[in-house]
From TrEMBL:
<dbReference type="InterPro" id="IPR004572">
    <property type="entry name" value="Protoporphyrinogen_oxidase"/>
</dbReference>
<feature type="domain" description="Amine oxidase">
    <location>
        <begin position="9"/>
        <end position="470"/>
    </location>
</feature>
<dbReference type="Pfam" id="PF01593">
    <property type="entry name" value="Amino_oxidase"/>
</dbReference>
<comment type="similarity">
    <text>Belongs to the protoporphyrinogen/coproporphyrinogen oxidase family. Protoporphyrinogen oxidase subfamily.</text>
</comment>
<dbReference type="InterPro" id="IPR002937">
    <property type="entry name" value="Amino_oxidase"/>
</dbReference>
<dbReference type="InterPro" id="IPR050464">
    <property type="entry name" value="Zeta_carotene_desat/Oxidored"/>
</dbReference>
<keyword id="KW-0627">Porphyrin biosynthesis</keyword>
<comment type="function">
    <text>Catalyzes the 6-electron oxidation of protoporphyrinogen-IX to form protoporphyrin-IX.</text>
</comment>
<comment type="pathway">
    <text>Porphyrin-containing compound metabolism; protoporphyrin-IX biosynthesis; protoporphyrin-IX from protoporphyrinogen-IX: step 1/1.</text>
</comment>
<dbReference type="GO" id="GO:0004729">
    <property type="term" value="F:oxygen-dependent protoporphyrinogen oxidase activity"/>
</dbReference>
<protein>
    <recommendedName>
        <fullName>Protoporphyrinogen oxidase</fullName>
        <ecNumber>1.3.3.4</ecNumber>
    </recommendedName>
</protein>
<dbReference type="GO" id="GO:0006782">
    <property type="term" value="P:protoporphyrinogen IX biosynthetic process"/>
</dbReference>
<keyword id="KW-0350">Heme biosynthesis</keyword>
<keyword id="KW-0560">Oxidoreductase</keyword>
<keyword id="KW-0274">FAD</keyword>
<dbReference type="InterPro" id="IPR036188">
    <property type="entry name" value="FAD/NAD-bd_sf"/>
</dbReference>
<keyword id="KW-0285">Flavoprotein</keyword>
Length: 477
């Protein structure tokens, strides 16, 4: 028997791929009473809108995007795309220097001086050609330092820093460049510059396909081809993103896969024949474990037998995020239709950004906003245990400050997501390699997938699950 820990999207995907690859089911153990993990949709169908507490859209790009679209295709799920020419895809803003600033959204935009930048972006991009070559001793640095070194302080401060706030609620001065720009970083280290690297790789580099393209050796999914032809920027599944894990749950249960709820694993002991898990006071003996739970939770399970592994797992930090969903019965609250705006940390505001949900998808005449707060600066801004009212008041105050919205929302919800996003700080790639090296060295019958290791996005964790399952031998499970 194979045991899957966690019924978030990665754990459900692992069970799905186990069934596909090996033809027999795994048992899923979930600590809560629901599937989906941090994916959560609150539907208010009688009023024509929904709130997304966690992720709300998925990008169709690259191998990870194609892999998710294949899964959606196999589950026969419809999709609701946002095309690249629509305002929610084209228009991205930041709040800086006391105003909302539209980031360049066309080639002509990089030749203009647009706030908050003091010169055209093309001049900052050119800096990469003149910046000296710097070989790093430890083969990693923060994404802020990398961009500042190659393109200058303004781009690092007003483009990269808010982007990192939006993706992982983190500080770009701490997050590894390998988190989002690994390919560019390696080109720069090899060729002495990003632009040089791109050109020289085209001219002299070996035309090698990424390892993961082996997933689609015959043909890409039809839905992926459709997304490319129609120029999707992002998409969701109807009735909210939680439809995806719920549909996956229903599919798995129809295939006789057992999903046990309120079944938190307390301890794992590895044996010659497999492992012993303590769940709800009883011992379970799987031959192999696939863990999709947060790394710090897995650490508590293995610390008695493998304290060194537990220490490696707990070295991956996490942050808390406050999510404030707001509904207004007013249609025209936006001066500009856009995906939303982000706030660079240099502005020292307690909000990370605001998503204009009703600009992205039809909400039947309602204006829906989501305010994201905290992250790396949660305790600094709110203390350890802020009240929902404190968080709501902060969100409304800053909507008035930034957008001039004085109306009271008709309906609101406040959620604090504790330790919800792992932070890929400098050295993360090495930490994950050390964790997996330890597991291989001691021949532990466990595989790791989920947001802590191979990427924090929906596409990343689904592909992580597939990759880990496909790396197993039948004899191992």
């Amino acid at each position: 028997m194979t045991a899957v820990l966690g019924a978030g999207i990665s754990g459900l995907s692992a069970a799905y791929y186990m069934l596909q690859r090996f033809g027999y089911p795994a048992t899923i153990y979930e600590a809560s009473n629901r599937v989906g993990g941090w994916i959560r949709t609150e539907r208010h169908t009688d009023k024509g809108f929904l709130f997304e507490v966690g992720p709300r859209t998925i990008r169709p790009k690259g191998i990870p995007g194609a892999n998710t679209l294949q899964l959606i295709e196999e589950l026969n799920l419809p999709v609701d795309p946002i095309k690249s020419w629509q305002p929610a895809a084209k228009n991205r803003m930041i709040y800086a220097k006391g105003q909302l600033c539209l980031l360049p959204n066309s080639l002509s935009g990089i030749f203009k001086t647009l706030p908050p930048f003091s010169k055209p972006l093309i001049s900052q991009i050119k800096q990469d050609l003149t910046a000296g070559k710097k070989k790093l001793k430890f083969a990693d640095e923060s994404i802020y330092d990398f961009v500042e070194r190659r393109f200058g302080t303004e781009l690092a401060t007003y483009a990269i820093s808010p982007m990192i706030c939006g993706i992982c609620a983190g500080d770009a001065k701490e997050i590894s460049v390998r988190f989002l720009m690994n390919d560019l970083f390696e080109k720069e280290q090899k060729w002495g510059g990003i632009i040089k690297g791109v050109i020289f790789e085209k001219l002299f580099g070996k035309n090698e396909k990424p390892v993961s393209t082996g997933i689609f050796e015959e043909a890409m999914p039809k839905l992926y081809d459709k997304a490319r032809q129609e120029k999707w920027s992002m998409y969701r599944v109807p009735d909210g993103i939680e439809t995806l894990p719920r549909t996956l749950r229903d599919h798995l249960q129809s295939k006789e896969i057992d999903i046990q709820f309120s079944a938190e694993c307390r301890e794992i002991t590895f044996t010659r024949d497999g492992a012993k898990m303590n769940i709800k006071g009883r011992d379970i003996y799987p031959e192999h474990i696939i863990s999709s739970i947060p790394s710090y939770k897995l650490a508590t399970c293995v610390k008695n037998q493998h304290p060194s592994l537990a220490a490696l797992l707990t070295s991956i930090p996490y942050v808390d995020v406050a999510v404030v969903n707001l509904q207004y019965n007013v249609q025209e609250l936006f001066k500009m239709k856009a995906f939303g705006f982000l706030v660079p940390p240099i502005e020292r505001l307690p909000i990370l950004g605001v998503i204009f949900d009703s600009c992205c998808f039809d909400m039947e005449g309602n204006t829906i906003l989501t305010v994201m707060m905290g992250g790396r600066w949660f305790e600094e801004n709110f203390g350890k245990d802020p009240t929902p009212k404190q968080l709501l008041d902060t969100a409304l105050q800053h909507l008035e400050l930034v957008m001039g919205i004085k109306e009271e929302p008709r309906f609101s919800r406040v959620h604090v997501l504790k330790k919800c996003i792992p932070q890929y700080t400098v050295g993360h790639k090495q930490r994950v390699a050390d964790i997996r090296r330890y597991i291989n060295q001691y021949k532990l019958p466990i595989s790791l997938c989920g947001a802590a290791y191979d990427g924090v996005g929906i596409n990343d964790v689904i592909l992580s699950a597939r990759t880990q399952v496909e790396s197993l031998n039948i004899s191992e499970v």
